[in-house]
Amino acid sequence: MKIILVVVLVLVFLPLLANSAFGHGIGGENLPVSIGNRNATLFVGVQPSVFDPTNNESYLTVKLTDGKTDAVIEHVTFMMELTKDGKQIFNEKFRQSGIAQAGGSFVNFRFSESNVGQTTLRIENIDKSSEYVEIPISVTPEFPASMIIFAAVFSLIPVLSFVRGRRIA
To answer: In what order do the strands lie in the sheet with 87-96?
Structure first.
């Protein structure tokens, strides 16, 4: 009887120890933009695209490349804004120097529980032009590992009861 009580208490309190994980759903977007008479591609990505419980940091990568040569266009400025339910949750001006790894500008932004739902990423004033892009991002909680542990432990109750020669009504 004491074992069942301990197992039930563990099952009740185990989900409270879970850390929430949030994902954006995709790895990146390549968007065509025009800057003056020049065609370009704006790459926007999030790394890592798969949640890593040992690293809570995620990076937003923005890279502008020439539409013909695919070479990184250096010394580009742009404004980046994240909005949720019409409220701004992030806004900053960036300069792509061409020195950053892979030629992009990196932003460290941690999605949290308050960001769950539809969020919009807007990048504007690309290289001092009127060009802008808006990307909808769906921030969703990932299935917590504690729920898998909860199910595994819960499924052991009938097995342990059977092994000990007892039946659960």
So the answer is: 22-23, 132-141, 117-124, 76-84, 87-96
Taking alpha carbons only, the member of 159, 47, 152, 65 closest to residue 110 is 47
pTM of the predicted model over 0.85 = no
Distance CA 140, CA 137 (A): 9
Cβ distance 126 to 42 under 8 Å? yes
Check whether 164 has a pLDDT greater than 60: yes
pLDDT higher than threshold 50 for residue 96: yes
98: left (phi over 0), alpha (psi -120 to 50) or beta: left
Please state the φ and ψ torsions of residue 156, each to the nearest 5 degrees: -75, -20
Positive or negative torsion for Cα 134, 57, 52, 100: positive
Give residue 40's pLDDT. 85
Give the pLDDT mean for 15-39: 66
Domains present along the chain, CATH in parentheses? 21-142 (2.60.40.1930)
